[in-house]
Amino acid sequence: AVIFAAELQGTASVLAFGCGTALIGFGAGLFGHGTLTATMNAAPKDQAGLALGAWGAVQASAAGVAIALGGILRDLVTAFAPQFGPAAGYNFVYCLELLLLFATLVTMVPLIRRRDTLLMQGHLTRS
What's the whole-model pTM score? Predict the structure, then answer.
């Protein structure tokens, strides 16, 4: 929705952009909650505070690097490809994020299958 909002006109553009950013924010919230919950559940009970601090440091560092790289890439695409319009840099970054998200999902499948196989064989216990 965010990628295609620039191509729409008037109110449709604003609605598409608003809905897209709301969905991105909702997804980010679910991701943050899910990863924090998984971190807290995986930590030993007497080290939950340490796990929370480590999770926060990793999240903040990753967000900072991602925002910086996204901004740099947007600026580079806008500078070197002005013929594609003012939204080209943003579209490039969002498309790259979609590709990386898809690559993450593809990479996770074998890991989940392996975990499920180990659970069925009794090598792991569910926590």
Answer: 0.75
